[in-house]
Amino acid sequence: MKRIGVLTSGGDAPGMNAAIRAVVRKAIYHDMEVYGIYNGYQGLMDGKIEQLNVGSVGDIIQRGGTILYSARCEEFKTDEGQNKGIEQLKKLGIEGLIVIGGDGSFQGAAKLTAKGFPCIGIPGTIDNDIAGTDYTIGFDTALNTIIEAVDKIRDTATSHERTYVIEVMGRDAGDLALWAGLANGAESVLIPEKDEPFENVVDRLKRGSERGKKHSIIILAEGVGSGFEYGKKIEEATNFETRVTVLGHIQRGGRPTGADRVLASRLAGKAVDLLLDGKGGRMVGIQNNQLVDHDIIEALNQKHNVDMSLYQLMTEISI
Ligand code: F6P
């Protein structure tokens, strides 16, 4: 393969730029030409494509977001949209495509591969909700953003002796909430994968208060429901002054952590290797600190599992 494309799609994630940089530089090192596709699959259909060189990806490794921009695209779910995309790629003689994104983006990559155009998926989403990899690009940075924010909220929680419900991102996956709960020493964590009876949360808060605890932190994944509604219920049930903070999109931006930069570079390198071998229809991942690749459709058909041993530990140490 001599000419490849790269795009980012779906929600942006810190570390995507590090992945783009590694794709471009490694491909050029191996005498390939690389084309950047702007605005995800929408830009692919619209032909927003330009050649990238070594300098195009200079000074981006430390930047959040994605220099290629991103989009969620309904039209690309149709046959017509996918054919339009393939036409644009063929017009420029591009033979393979690397897609950096989450499961929606992988669906597009799988569809193109099924139509005979080889694609490789690199998992990039703060949610960490992709099967076939222990970590996705952006998860570590978002986790650290949450940790810093909750540490700050805790100062006010202590000063005013309040209970705080903090809503974090994670539509279908509780990884961010669970890891942050452990790292921030929360009293309770609410995740979509595990039903936590409301009485347990209330009992824990009351027990803490009886022990003389001055404040409490509850971390709730957005997939569980509204933080504001949960906070209201908590205040009604305990009579403790309760406030709610929804962290929102601050979780998606910012400088990627070292872990995310290294992960992004390693996954990108592996993706280029697969295209160099003429392979398509694969996703790359990291499992037990080893780079792996899987059939992209098989990975899409599997569910990412949150590590329930962390949940158990959380239960045991937040008594
Ligand atoms: O998939 C990443 C994510 O940040 C989810 O956690 C969140 O539910 C969603 O994207 C928000 O998407 P948008 O930025 O399109 O509102």
From TrEMBL:
This is ATP-dependent 6-phosphofructokinase. It catalyses: beta-D-fructose 6-phosphate + ATP = beta-D-fructose 1,6-bisphosphate + ADP + H(+). CDD domains: Bacterial_PFK. Catalyzes the phosphorylation of D-fructose 6-phosphate to fructose 1,6-bisphosphate by ATP, the first committing step of glycolysis. It is found in: Cytoplasm. Its cofactor is Mg(2+). The gene is pfkA_2. PROSITE patterns: PHOSPHOFRUCTOKINASE. One of its GO terms (molecular function) is monosaccharide binding. Allosterically activated by ADP and other diphosphonucleosides, and allosterically inhibited by phosphoenolpyruvate. ADP binds at R21, A22, V23, V24, R25, R154, G185, A186, E187, R211, K213, K214, H215. The active site is at D127. SUPFAM superfamilies: Phosphofructokinase. Homotetramer. Belongs to the phosphofructokinase type A (PFKA) family. ATP-dependent PFK group I subfamily. Prokaryotic clade 'B1' sub-subfamily. Pathway: Carbohydrate degradation; glycolysis; D-glyceraldehyde 3-phosphate and glycerone phosphate from D-glucose: step 3/4. ATP binds at G11, R72, C73, G102, D103, G104, S105. Its EC number is 2.7.1.11. Residues 3-275 form the Phosphofructokinase domain. The keyword Transmembrane helix does not apply. It comes from the Bacteria. It comes from Halolactibacillus alkaliphilus. Pfam families: PFK. InterPro entries: ATP_PFK (IPR022953), ATP_PFK_prok-type (IPR012003), PFKA_ATP_prok (IPR012828), Phosphofructokinase_CS (IPR015912), Phosphofructokinase_dom (IPR000023), PKF_sf (IPR035966). Transmembrane segments: none annotated.
